[in-house]
């Protein structure tokens, strides 16, 4: 990426993309010690999001990789299935691989977004959607997506269910570290929803 392209992305948008990517990373696989250490080093302000980040940091400081791997497996994998099914199709229709996934695949193709070869999860997984938003903001799939396109994608594929998912993650019986991550995700989704509501288009 050239310096000229780099300048086009405002600092605020970089921070948004970083938070989307962080959520995607944490939700795609259990964090290793390095990622837990990075979580432990985070600090927040007095806002809801800042307080949620502070709480995540405190829990990460006392969490070991083996423990969080068990937590991740209980939440998302389990015997047969985990406590939560983190897919748009499931949240919106009650079934996996339904119309929301087909609509997402069409929208991904239109934006030049393809599933990584080593990923076998349906594309409407929450981790994938967080990574897609982060990538669209900074231009990982071509040019950075204009705000109206970000808004369209968010309102269509994320807003209808992500807040509900993060609330469920907050309250899941197997959630410890992920309860804090749920609070971060829920607060961030509220900020994004409100910010997009206030933008024209």
Automatic annotation (TrEMBL):
Source superkingdom: Bacteria
UniProt feature coiled coil, ranges: none
Keywords: Chaperone
Gene3D superfamilies assigned: TorD-like
Signal peptide extent: none
InterPro entries: DMSO/NO3_reduct_chaperone, TorD-like_sf, TorD/DmsD_chaperones
UniProt name for this protein: Molecular chaperone TorD
Lineage per the UniProt record: Bacteria, Pseudomonadati, Pseudomonadota, Alphaproteobacteria, Rhodobacterales
